[in-house]
Amino acid sequence: MLGIVAVNGYIPYYRLPRTAVGDAWRLEQARDLLIGERAVAAFDEDTITLAVEAALHTLEDRPTDQIGALFFASTTPVFLEKSNAAVVAAACDIPATTTFDLTGTLRSGTSALALAFDAVLVERTPQALVVAADMRPAEPGTLADAINGDGAAALLVGEGDNVIAELIAEAHLSAPVLDTWRRTQDRYLQSDDEAFALQTGYMRYMNEVGERLLANANITPDQLAGVALYAPDGRALMRLAKRSPFGVALARMGMASPAAVLLMQAGNLGAAFAIAQLALLLENAHPGDFIALVGYGDGADAYLFRVTDAVEAWRPRRTLRHWLARKGEITYTLAHAFRENWRDKPLWPPTAEPWTSLPLLHREQAELLRFYAQRCTTCGAVWWPHRPNCYDCGAQTGFEMVRLSRRGTVASFVAEWAVPTPLPPLGMVTVDTPEGARITTQSTDGDPRAFALGDDVEFALRVFHTAKNVPHYSWKVRKA
Fold first, then answer.
1. Mean pLDDT, rounded, for 325-346
2. Which ranges carry the ChsH2 rubredoxin-like zinc ribbon domain (predicted)?
């Protein structure tokens, strides 16, 4: 049985009400469309950190030694000439022998899924991980500025009795469509004649791929229990519900459809949008349900899955709805500053250049990306980051590596106003981990003054600073 073993997603903590965009740019004619809110990646997040979050929540303490391939999909990769997938694999401690980056199209996530299924089918790997993340840059003051959201989703593909959604059929088509685009030198998304593109591109190819999928599976539209699909905005989604093979399922779900939920509470997540919807569907799916997954962008990809009995035992500890509910509101000015900071600034005072060493980054990859601590085999002491001698017994040899669980409790904390940060105050938190390490690091996602001694916390990979035009990743802490 070939299919999905696990799926989950991640939505950043910060939210921007769409009315704030309308108020900032006096978008009176679009006021009726500016409902809900959009997710905004923090100043210390990028598509790699978003992808790592989604991947870690999907794996949820699963062994990673069976994952022989990792596919990273995004229209906004951090690196244009360097493997983003390799960084994600390292941060997830996946010994993947094969990593791929797929970019340039909104359906890169669903296209990566086809490659992952093929890799498992030909026995190239027992399992493959697909991770999609996007932070699509829209010109300030445009409707896309209010509708697009930041987020990520991940799928673990494999064979066997632990498959929660069996692959029944698929359909693919390719066609060049000028609806939205962004050239290498473009800062923001481009578009023109949206009504024409919607009718001759989106509606046409979503209908065609839907008809092919149902024909390949030999089922009727009313047999679909749910649909996870890309939709540029709410208007396109409603149009699809009226005239498409997926209309029956969309009409049945109404505003509870995963596309509508995400559009209202997080926004259009780009390459991660359809996969994130699939995570929402499978959270409440029942064995025997037929669910369609459809991606769009210069053509379309469509998959039909049948939910298996294994879904009952799979239910994730923290669902995508958890990340939707966990949020804090920010202003439009701050949201725009976060985005510009991510693109142009070094997360540091402009008068100072953070020290960096590429050999040191390579040498400390195990602690900075994979989150491995050192343990003294003489006395058992554990510490992070690494050091040349044991802080307890003074031994200089006999150390072993131990991967930290990314969990802990607060031993002490301070809110520091003197240290420059895009969102003051800067939180410095000392955390005791279950492995015995005591770690002091920065906090993220929320006001550090909200911590209390003994609070349960977790570590998240974030950008600490940028130097030599390279993001330096390490682990910050947030409330669990």
1. 78
2. 366-396
Element (H, E) at 220: none
pTM as predicted: 0.94
Q: Are 80 and 98 in contact (CB under 8 A)?
A: no
Q: Which of 322, 342, 362 is the last residue of a domain?
A: 342
User: Quick one: 153 exposed, middle or buried, by C-beta within 10 A (0-12, 13-18, 19+)?
Assistant: buried
Q: What tokens appear for 209 in the block?
A: 């791929």
Q: Do 32 and 128 belong together in one domain?
A: yes
- Rounded to whole angstroms, the Cα distance separating 270 from 130 reads 15
Same domain, 23 and 104: yes
| Separation of alpha carbons 43 and 27, rounded Å | 26
**Burial (Cβ within 10 Å: 0-12, 13-18, ≥19) of residue 187:** exposed
- % helix / strand / coil in the chain, to the nearest 5? 35, 30, 35
At 47, which helix (H) or strand (E)?
Answer: helix 47-59
**C-beta of residue 257 within 8 angstroms of C-beta of residue 322:** no
Strands, sheet with 37-40, edge to edge from the N-terminal-most edge strand: 37-40, 14-17, 328-329
Helical H segments across 198-233, by residue range: 204-217
Taking the C-alpha atoms of residue 41 and residue 39, their distance in angstroms, rounded to an integer, is: 7
Task: Give dist(CA 201, CA 196) in Å, integer.
Answer: 8
Q: 255-305, pLDDT tens digit by residue?
A: 889 999 999 999 999 999 999 999 999 999 999 999 999 999 999 999 999
Domain that holds residue 361: 347-479
Per the listing, tokens 């997710």 go with 39
- Look at residues 342, 367, 389 and tell me which one is the last residue of a structural domain: 342
CA 262 – CA 422 distance, rounded (Å): 27
One-letter amino acid of 475: W
Give dist(CA 430, CA 453) in Å, integer. 10
